[in-house]
Structure formats: C-alpha cells, structure tokens
C-alpha cells in the first residue's frame, strides 16, 4: 500500500518542476560557499528533467540522496538549507510530498541569508505560491496535512517540526484557500 504522500507519477512530475524552481532560487547561497560542488545544481537539473518525462522514477529514486550529502560539507546555515532544498526537489520522484520540503528549505535558506529582513521568509513563500501552476496546486492540495499521515516526509521527522513545519503549514493553509492565491505569472 502506498502512502497518500507519494502522489501519482503524473502528479510527482508536475510538482517536481515547481520544487526545482523553489530550490533554484536559493542555489546561489550554496554555490557562493562551495562553487566547485555541482551536486545541488545537478539535483535541480534532474528534478526538471524528471518533470519533463526525460528520466524514470526508479533511477531518480536511487539518485535522491546525492545533493543532501553536499549539505554535510558546509558550515553556513543558509548554504546548508539551500543544498537541502535541492535534495528535497531531487526526492520528489520518490514521494511527491518532498516538493513541500524543497519549498520549506528554500524559504528557510532565504530567511537565514537575510536575518536583518524579517519578511524574507514570507516573501519567499509568497513567490513560491504565486509561481505554482494550477496543476501543482491541485496535486499538492491532495497531500495530507502535515502530521496527519506518518508514512512519508510530512509525518514525524525534520519537516514536521520546528521552523520547517511552520513554513509547510503556511503553504498548505494557502492551498486550502485557492481563491486567495494570486494566479501564476
């Protein structure tokens, strides 16, 4: 039996592109610290290729941990969060809920990079919501609320607690009220 956090393969392909967009916005934070480490950039490129149907699910499931290892060699918290955003985007072929992880880590990275701007996390979340295609909104709207299903990244674990959880809750709350979201540009 699969988890409702998995989503269908078609839905995972839709949300993989959005997750890649979220992660790519903060990639510069990682690359400024470790310019020679291409693992996060490659993970984002693979998420986009998966979204386009160019890569298969099984192959991408095997590749999903590579970008996360890049975060282990960095001390800057914003760079770590940016690498983790890329890793979450690369994990979408495994489970669609990782798209929310990519968005949460990207928003966290934006906030860590601008501690003097308290609105930076909210600004990033607004950008993410404004740039989410209708199909991605629909797919992500089918995910269980954070903490309601333990079989996946939205259950117990890093995404379900602390600051990351508050970001995911904000995104999921916005998805419940699509009439209040701005149309994608």
Defining key terms:
globular, mainly alpha
Q: Average the pLDDT over all residues and give the rounded result.
A: 91
Total number of helices: 9
What's the main sheet like? Answer: none
> What's the overall geometry?
globular
Determine the strand fraction and express it as a percent band: under 5%
* Global structural class: mainly alpha
Helical amount = 55-70%
- What sequence of helices (H) and strands (E) makes up the elements? HHHHHHHHH
Instruction: Compute the separation of the termini in Å.
Output: 37 Å
Overall tally of domains:
1
How many beta-strand segments? 0
Q: Catalogue the unreliable spans.
A: none
Radius of gyration: 15 Å
Q: How would you describe this protein?
A:
62% of the residues lie in helices and 0% in strands. With 185 residues, the protein is an all-alpha fold. The chain has one domain. The chain is globular. The N and C termini lie far apart (37 Å).
